[in-house]
């Protein structure tokens, strides 16, 4: 074998010891080391490193880590469920508020007719009513969110 | 098929998806030592490994819905842990992951400085501890590939999946890692 081939085989030895060669590469290394004493010894050295790496001292897992992790996961899961429930509640409040405004619009128009002017603004017109009811809806939803958040905060502190 | 968790694998994964705490406990118990060891090897700090261990399970619960059950669970779990650890290291310590951590004189250097043949010392004095110290001084990308290959006994394809790099890169990191390790022991 020429020196270039010898060097190429030698460069493969760490991977051979790590079991990271393909079958044909591994066979080529075995054939080479059978006839090359220095590479055979080198492969043994790499083999001892590989063995050492497979038997490193093992870290001790901290006591109660599993229990603490389980509690944290369960707590996080409950919080996430709670957040989703509160989100749905706020959404339901917003929808309810919209529905109430819409219903109130029909009722008001049936009672006062299609025009109720205050300071030159027709309060039962579609645009002013939508604006007014939007403000009312978002104030309601915002207040509900603040109340729920305070409730959660208080419950957590308890 | 999940050969990593024989018999109960698919049931357990389904349980995790349903939020079954028994399934969570079973998987956590099964992987606790391996996962903690992997995180310790990457971060070199028990407190950080502990925090990342917890974060890994939180992330697993969060992402289990998107886990493809046709893939092996172990590489997926380790890739979740690996990404968290790498993010942490990027933010807090090793901005360049292929650079060795700054350290003082390591036990290896002290022993090597004593003058005897490092390999003989390796065999005579706590070989494992010396190797572990030498690994600790390697760049994180080398620590990662060495621990996954030798301690986790993972195939190069699985390591590539976890690290998100091509197979050729895994091979070259493994080679460089082993050479660096030997270089540090000589």
Care to describe what's here?
The complex is a heterodimer of chains A (158) and B (186). By secondary structure, chain A is mainly α. Chain A has 2 domains: 3-55, no CATH class; 78-157, no CATH class. Chain A contains 5 helices and 2 strands. In chain A, a hairpin with a 2-residue loop joins β1 and β2. Chain A starts with a helix and ends with a helix. The mean pLDDT of chain A is 86. Chain B is mainly alpha-helical and 186 residues long. Helices cover 72% and strands 0% of the residues of chain B. Chain B has helices spanning 9-18, 21-43, 46-63, 73-92, 107-113, 118-124, 127-136, 140-151, 156-163, 167-185. In chain B, α1 (9-18) packs across α2, α2 crosses α3 (46-63) and α2 packs across α4 (73-92). The longest helix of chain B has 23 residues, at 21-43.
What's the topology here?
The complex is a heterodimer of chains A (158) and B (186).
Chain A: H1 3-17, H2 23-35, H3 37-54, H4 65-112, E1 117-118, E2 121-122, H5 126-157
Antiparallel strand pairs in A: 1-2
Chain B: H1 9-18, H2 21-43, H3 46-63, H4 73-92, H5 107-113, H6 118-124, H7 127-136, H8 140-151, H9 156-163, H10 167-185
Quickly list its features:
heterodimer; A: 158 residues; mainly alpha; two-stranded antiparallel sheet; 2 strands; elongated; B: 186 residues; 10 helices; 72% helix
Order of helices and strands of chain B: HHHHHHHHHH
Distance between the termini of chain B: 44 Å
- Biggest sheet: strand arrangement of chain A: 1-2
Tally of separate helices of chain A: 5
Q: Helices and strands of chain A, in N-to-C order?
A: HHHHEEH
General form of chain B: elongated
State the separation between the terminal residues of chain A, measured CA to CA.
79 Å
Strand content of chain A: under 5%
Largest sheet of chain B: none
Low-confidence stretches of chain B: 102-114
Helix segment tally of chain B: 10
- The total number of structural domains of chain A is 2
Largest interface: which pair?
A-B, 32 and 41 residues
Mean pLDDT level of chain A? 86
SS elements, strand count of chain A: 2
Question: Share of helix among residues of chain A?
Answer: over 70%
**Largest β-sheet summary of chain A:** 2 strands, antiparallel
Which stretches of chain A are low in confidence, meaning pLDDT under 50 for 5 or more residues running?
Answer: none
Helix content of chain B: over 70%
Structural class of chain A: mainly alpha
